[in-house]
Design a protein that fits this description.
With 435 residues, the chain is of the alpha/beta class. The chain is 35% helix and 27% strand. The chain has three domains: 157 residues, 3-Layer(aba) Sandwich (Rossmann fold); 162 residues, Dihydrodipicolinate Reductase, domain 2 (2-Layer Sandwich), CATH 3.30.360; 86 residues, 2-Layer Sandwich (Alpha-Beta Plaits). A hairpin with a 2-residue loop joins strand 9 and strand 10. It binds L-homoserine. L-homoserine binds next to helix 7.
Length: 435
């Protein structure tokens, strides 16, 4: 029987999950791949630390280059993260003719173009299913299952940590910091959790999904990115009262003028499927012109869930070793990139939730409404919260219809300049996700 000897870089949450999955399901993985997949050499910053996986039959080192350069290693599994050393290791492996499997979205989103070029030049596969949405085989679905479709849009919840935080805040009124600490303890969060809560991780993933969906180059730097750290209990509660749930949404859409790529907190109607995706779960909805909307849901982070995608790539890799490049699926799904402009945020259209502190006196609401009307912004709903006995200011909550973001920016500048409005207005985008 064929064998595939694996060099594993990184024995963190996903590395240990991968070892355990390979061990627990060894027989069926062999049956499905027709190959004995075996990790023979692994690196970790501290190889002797006790860990959640059995490493007894694996040669351990603190030098990842030793693993890459081990002549016995057939394929390199990069689970270190980041885009500096991980890049050097992946490049070194590829130059030695070894396929690379990675769960590293930063690496693919930021330096994927260089790595794919190198992989093509050396005729080796570079696989990255685990880089996006954990357990969900969304790369395979987009690149292969939906290959006949012109993709109109895709949207989803693609950061498990942020979804976990927003869900726990909304459902159990838990404080942000405590939930983030739990997400870190559960192994959901990135090494630097600001990547999760400031939307960078989701932007990495969206850049990859959009490249595959629309056949465009990877353009992480063009993704509009806003995190959840400014979302308060108050907005979560008010949104629920109005029939909406706040989710950290990633959205890429092809419009006649160009492509939108954006990641930001978003009010979704509670009856929307995506509004009901809670905890560490991820979900991606894709609209293809032939298939119509399709929905993919599953755990977006965690040891076993992510290992599921890593091991699927290992099984694919065992079949690809003796294939020619023309038999393989193109790295990002296409053999020819499209030159489609990315729309600046001022050009996108969305609805809005606005909350502002105002003087509690006649005419204030009329002033705000006049500014919105003059800029062609139509109000869908309005609420005024009476001030508490100890407070002088009232609170106005507005939902608007869809409008160009540029017009909303102008409106907010004018509204915040009113003497009767205090402090910056809170602005959260709102999507109905109508097909
Ligand atoms: N930190 C990531 C998340 C891990 O929370 O979704 C999976 O990519």
């Amino acid at each position: 029987m064929k064998s595939l000897k694996v060099g594993l870089l990184g024995l963190g949450t996903v590395g240990c999950g991968t070892l355990e999955l390979l061990r627990n399901n060894a027989a069926l993985i062999t049956d499905r791949s027709g190959c004995q997949i075996q990790v023979i050499h692994a690196s970790a910053r501290n190889p002797n630390r006790p860990r959640a996986a059995d490493t007894r039959n694996i040669l351990l080192t603190d030098n990842p280059f030793e693993v890459v350069n081990n002549a016995e290693v057939d394929v390199v599994l990069e689970l270190i993260g980041g885009s500096t050393i991980a890049f050097d290791l992946a490049a070194q492996a590829i130059k030695s003719g070894k396929p690379v499997i990675t769960a590293n979205k930063a690496l693919i989103a930021e330096r994927g173009a260089e790595l794919f070029d190198l992989a093509r030049a050396h005729n080796v596969p570079l696989l990255f299913e685990a880089a996006v949405a954990g357990s969900i085989p969304i790369i395979k679905a987009l690149r292969e299952g939906l290959a006949a479709n012109r993709i109109e849009w895709l949207t989803g919840i693609i950061n498990g940590t942020s979804n976990f935080i927003l869900s726990e805040m909304g459902e159990k009124s838990r404080p942000f910091d405590a939930v983030l600490a739990e997400a870190q303890a559960l192994g959901y969060a990135e090494a630097d959790p600001t990547f999760d809560i400031e939307g960078i991780d989701a932007a990495h993933k969206l850049a990859i999904l959009a490249a595959i969906a629309f056949g465009i180059p990877l353009q992480f730097e063009r993704v509009y990115t806003e995190g959840i750290s400014h979302i308060t209990d108050r907005d979560i509660t008010y949104a629920e009262g109005l029939g909406y749930r706040i989710k950290h949404l990633a959205l890429a859409k092809q419009t006649p003028d160009g492509i939108e790529m954006r990641v930001h907190p978003t009010l979704l109607p509670v009856q929307q499927l995506l509004a009901n995706v809670s905890g560490v779960m991820n979900a991606v909805e894709v609209k293809g012109d032939a298939a119509g909307p399709t929905l993919y849901c599953g755990a977006g982070a965690g040891a076993e869930a992510t290992a599921s995608a890593v091991v699927a790539d290992l099984i694919d890799c065992s079949r690809l070793l003796d294939s020619s490049p023309t038999q393989r699926v193109a790295d990002l799904g296409t053999r020819r990139d499209q030159a489609i402009p990315i729309l600046p945020m001022g050009e996108i259209e969305t609805a809005y939730y606005l909350r502002m502190q105002v003087d509690d006196r006649p005419g204030v609401l009329a002033e705000v409404a006049r500014i919105l009307a003059e800029l062609g912004i139509s109000i869908e709903a309005i609420q005024q919260k009476e001030p508490a006995p100890s407070e002088a200011e009232a609170e106005i909550i507005l939902l608007t219809h869809r409008v160009r973001e540029r017009a909303m920016e102008q409106a907010l500048t004018e509204i915040e300049a009113l003497a009767s409005v205090h402090g910056p207005a809170i602005r959260i985008r709102l999507e109905h996700l109508d097909n």
